[in-house]
Every structure is written in structure tokens, then in C-alpha cells.
Design a protein that fits this description.
About 50% of the residues lie in helices and about 5% in strands. It has 3 helices and 2 strands, in the order αααββ. The relative contact order is 0.17.
Length: about 70
């Protein structure tokens, strides 16, 4: 399952409501972000991590606004 911006927002909302707190999500298929703008991922990452860590995590996935091949 590739994760797009809509799915990312949905998972983020479930976590905000405590539905995913402390648990895991089973993702069948490739665990890729697809058509997911860097800013959407950054907003979600900063909601759950310290800004410095969120920035590092997103930088590992993106090169500018493009996905890294290893991301």
C-alpha cells in the first residue's frame, strides 16, 4: 500500500484520537509515500516529534521536493 497525503492525514487523525496510540499499523505491499508533498509529511512529523528530529526525518526521505531513491 502506498501512502498518499490523504492516507497520511487519515492516519494522523486516528493517532490524534488515540486510536493508534502505542500500536502498530500493518501495511501490506510497498511502504512508500506517493504523491505526498514534503510539506504534508513535515506537518505530520512535527506534530509527533521535536522539530529538529522531524526535520531530519523528512530530510532523509526528500531531496528538496523530490523523494530520495533510498527514502
Amino acid at each position: 500500500m502506498a501512502i498518499n497525503a490523504l492516507t497520511l492525514a487519515w492516519l494522523d487523525r486516528l493517532r490524534q484520537r488515540g486510536i493508534l496510540s502505542g500500536g502498530a499499523v500493518l501495511d501490506l505491499g510497498p511502504q512508500d509515500l506517493i504523491a505526498c508533498p514534503r510539506e504534508a509529511v513535515l506537518v505530520s512529523a512535527r506534530r509527533w516529534h521535536a522539530p529538529e528530529l522531524a526535520d531530519r526525518l523528512v530530510e532523509a526521505i526528500y531531496d528538496g521536493d523530490r523523494f530520495r531513491q533510498i527514502g
